[in-house]
Amino acid sequence: MTSTLQSLPWWKQGPIYQIYPRSFLDTNGDGVGDLEGIRRKLDYLKDLGVRGIWLSPIYPSPLADFGYDITNYHDIDPVFGSLEGFRSLVREADQRGIALIMDMVLNHTSHQHPWFIESRSSRESMKRDWYIWKDGRRGLFGRRFPNNWMAAFGGHAWTFDEQSGQYYLHLFTEEQPDLNWRNPEVQRAMLGELTFWLDLGVKGFRLDVINYLVKDAQFRNNPYHFRATYPRRHDLQHHQYDRNQSETYDIIRSLRDLLDSYAGSSEETMLVGEVYPDEGVHAPDLAATYIGDGRELLHLAFDFSPIYTKLTAGDLYSVLNNWYSVLSPQAWPCHVLSNHDQSRASSRLCAGPDSEAKKKLLAALILTQRGTPFLYYGEEIGMVDGKIRRQDLQDPLGKKYYPFHPGRDRSRTPMQWTDGPGAGFTEGKPWLPINPDYRERNVKAQEGDPSSLLTWYKALIHLRQQEAALHSGTIEFIQAGLADEVLAYRRRIGEEEVLVVLNVSGQTRQNPGGRGGRVLLSTHRKSESPIEQDTRLAPWECTVYK
Ligand code: NOJ
């Protein structure tokens, strides 16, 4: 097995940092973050130790779904900057050893995309078959939807187009019509869009809802499965026919071929897929099918189980252990605790007493696992969910289901850089309210503080890059501590072994590690100090030793 960091491709070398560009740094006072803002913070990211940036969508968009509705796949929305600015960003990131990946939305376009405008223009349009058009079924009381599929953002997944007299499919909002991936012209056109970015020096893509691409050829009804959830009929269906069709894997193979042709000898390009299971379901096995052995399908896929877990040693263990056990031995795992769609882990898992200690524990957990950690902007300073008043809501999901669904704005609030006006994010009116805790919780305050979360993140990332066992080794959990709320594991490469012990409780606990050693990094102990086999762990202690 490889043991030097440099011999790994960039996406295995260090964390990938997700930026929600609207909320990162605004440099022109319009209240919305921009590419120039990201460029100015490259040194910050380098210093943090990230090796890649995933940019949430920055393409032109009418914002029905905040950029996940694209009208032009090979341009930048003026609110973020220009292609020229993007080129500088790629170049300057590259100079700092940071790769850029784009968020690529293949399943659907905006309804204002020229392809859809043309497709919609008539049944005879050359691009009619680029989208999914169907006649309604005849019912007792008139026209009925083509089948029972429901949209993730409310209502039926079909909208009737008066002009051409047919329904089109949209698995999200009606402003996001689904493309027909069974049409080879669509496949070619989209590969062309990916090529555009690869030619600009982008090193890969995060593929939005990649498992939705192809739909059942017969458009059969989804079966229902009843359970308590938000009032969305969508969530009461088992999505057997509108996702995960076998042909999707063939399409991913062709995307992979394209990426491989840009990969050079060091696996320089990377695809990471958002594989969405039925709502609330843990499906690491499904995500694993989209990676296979990692050679022809995706390089990485997200397992969202940590989004639905609790902060106990047993829960964390079972989520991680399941993930590793369903992956092929050749596949490379990745881990994610927060993103732009979910409540931040710092709110979801760390609320209540000892919240800062819990955040340190989650950081230690994700940065010492086997595989690539994904960090979400602000996670490194412990940003929490914003409380967004109804009149400030921006997210279509939040607006539609208010007050039953919290929406997604809460995890998209502006980055907290300083305790100054606009939190150092903007000199204008921010597009979403800044979380009032920015006065205490901000990058500037944490940068100079050796006990801050930010300092802890940096130290962990640095350690992960120093220790071959951490970046390239195997992982083996020590079951003995689980009943006692201690999650412990061995990371091994060759003769080297690093132990990670995490006390997932507010009580003093016994170390189940089974041996002593020398501390590499700890929340409670000095680096290089000895640690005894029978040492006791302080509440929420995180210690990595060798
Ligand atoms: C998943 C994305 O993460 C989410 O933000 C978006 O709304 C949907 N896909 C639709 O593109």
Structural class: alpha/beta
- The 3D shape can be described as globular
**C-alpha termini separation:** 20 Å
Overall number of strands: 21
Low-confidence runs of at least 5 consecutive residues: none
Q: Averaged pLDDT, please?
A: 96
Relative helix content: 25-40%
Largest sheet: 8 strands, parallel
**How many helices?**
15
Cα Rg: 24 Å
Beta-strand fraction estimate: 15-25%
Keywords:
546 residues; 8-stranded parallel sheet; 6-stranded antiparallel sheet; binds 1-deoxynojirimycin
State the gist of this model.
The protein has 546 residues and is an alpha/beta fold. The protein is built from 15 helices and 21 strands.
Give a verbal description of the structure.
The protein has about 550 residues and is of the alpha/beta class. About 25% of the residues lie in helices and about 15% in strands. It has 15 helices and 21 strands. The strands form 5 sheets. Strands 11-10-9-3-2-1-13-12 form an 8-stranded parallel β-sheet. Strands 14-15-16-21-18-19 form a 6-stranded antiparallel β-sheet. Helix 7 links the parallel strand 9 (about 205) and strand 10. The mean pLDDT is about 95. The protein binds 1-deoxynojirimycin.
